[in-house]
Amino acid sequence: MGVALFEKIQEIRAIYPEGTQSALLPALRLAQEEYGWLSPDALREVADALDLTPAMCKSVASFYDQFNLEPVGEHLVEVCTNVSCALYGAQQVLEAFQDELGCRAGETTEDGKVTLRTIECLGGCGWGTIVAVDHAYRKGVKPGDAAAIVKELA
Amino acid sequence: MSHKQIVMAGTDARDLTKLAEYEAVGGYASLAKARALGAEAITNELMTSELRGRGGAFFPTGRKWSFVPSPEQNPNPHYLVINADESEPGSFKDNEIISRVPHRFIEGCLITAHAVLAKHVYVYIRGEYLEPYEILVAALEELKERPDLRGDVTIIVHRGAGAYICGEETALLDSLEGKRGQPRTKPPFPAVAGLYASPTVVNNVETIATVPAIIEMGGAEYAKLGVPNSRGTRLISVSGHVERGGNYEVEPGISLKDLIFAPELGGGVPGGRAIKAVIPGGSSTVILTGDELEVGYDFDSLLAKNTAMGSAGVIVLDDRVCMVQLGIRVSEFYEHESCGKCTPCREGTRWMTQILRKLEAGDASEHELDLLLSVCDRINGKCLCPLGDTAAMAIASYVEKFRDEFIAHLNGGGCPCGDHSPLDGVLAPVAQHIHNHASELVPA
Ligand SMILES: Cc1cc2nc3c(=O)[nH]c(=O)nc-3n(C[C@H](O)[C@H](O)[C@H](O)COP(=O)(O)O)c2cc1C
Ligand code: SF4
Ligand code: FES
Fold first, then answer.
1. How much is the pTM?
2. Can you name the residues that pair with B323 across neighbouring β-strands?
């Protein structure tokens, strides 16, 4: 597993000019796809593959919301609660997911299956409420849709 | 009312995500024409068109390109970087452009690369835009078989990872270099020392997707559209309390009222409710009251009202919305997205949220209302990048224009809108506590 990741990172590295660390964000994304989150070990692997220090990798990873520095569930449900979505009732959508999943925003279900989060504007404001389910946007989500979406993830 | 389509032209009849379909409507003909014209002539055409950047800062595009030093002045490679980070609350136009006319966008990239002598184009797309990313990559895949179109230009799609500030062009460049995305001090400007300290042009997706039409019709024709200082067409994102949320391509100069009420545009307010306020250009812009909707939707007219088109995200708020709650939610966004580099922005946005929360709960006195404005004042103009300034100006505008409503909250008043306001109790990411059960299940 580690070798495959190393090789894939080298491929990405070759896309960017030599002597730059532009491959770091894509490499972190790859590592996260592989392990689900960026554990200290995963960060070390990325660092080794790019000749960087683990501290540099963690410093960069910690800047970006999409990188998980703690374990998350197998699935990710992200409800946009920025202004436009909130005007359509995003808070009620969020509450419906909390009820269905039995966990609060920012938490993962007891069985480790689903992490529920709020998220800032996803760039779909005219079609809200936007809920990103494993990063795919669902548009016009209403509280009544939560049950079916949760069932899909079971 | 008929609306001239330039960026989205042809999308009603055809699936322009496919190369063959795009070529069938004359796609990539502008590229051939531009290559025949040569770099300087393309830039001149852009100057004539009076096109201004669609990312928010409104900088004249042709002029920006003309700042790039010649290879004799600076031997470093030139880069073209496309800003597809679109994260301004209220804006979702670049999402639709990439998703529906990826080839027009790519054609614009190739023409621009030719004009600014760049062999490498980096498209920095926000990490959350998975579907647009996949559509763009599929379109580029089609181009692999077409060296006649690609020429010697390489287009690299680089995904962000969730940070609003990476839309600011110098933060974007740092992020693209694999660093924390924090703005740089300017000068030097990117045209002189941008990506990898080399001459770099940074342009927004919509700006670039407009370039093929300008080459096709000529800059002078393009400059006949719209109104002075706001030429051509713009894709306007309309959301909130409207019947028909969506992106609408219109000529600037149309009134904000028409944008919201025309049956083929916003379609009016659901339930026929009254409009309390409109955010005209994304959450970073100064708010307008329901009485100010006759204003023309263009640079000059909005500037006269002390606000801006910004990234053209119109958010309509009906009479139920509590302005203090709006302030909280908007302030929480900037608090979350402040990159932390300057103290007034990092600390000030947090202060704004805290005071607004106190106000909303009815626990504040007039002194705290003054304190809020004072905090805004201490952020505005004292920051490295516009994030802090615009956050402060937006919040201050809510207080100034809806002062009575803020006053009504004071001294035990609490929220007069009560829980009728759709913004009541909305949970923002910055207020969300991360309790992770899984972290107990998985050994670190
Ligand atoms: C906080 C902040 C966020 C920004 N976000 C974006 C963005 O998401 N997309 C964009 O094109 N420009 C954004 N800009 C503007 C860019 O800095 C830059 O002006 C623009 O990309 C230049 O392209 P244009 O001249 O084609 O508009 C942002 C600016 C600031 C200060
Ligand atoms: S104003 Fe805010 S976002 Fe901009 S550089 Fe300063 S701290 Fe960062
Ligand atoms: S506010 Fe939810 S997508 Fe913009």
1. 0.96
2. none
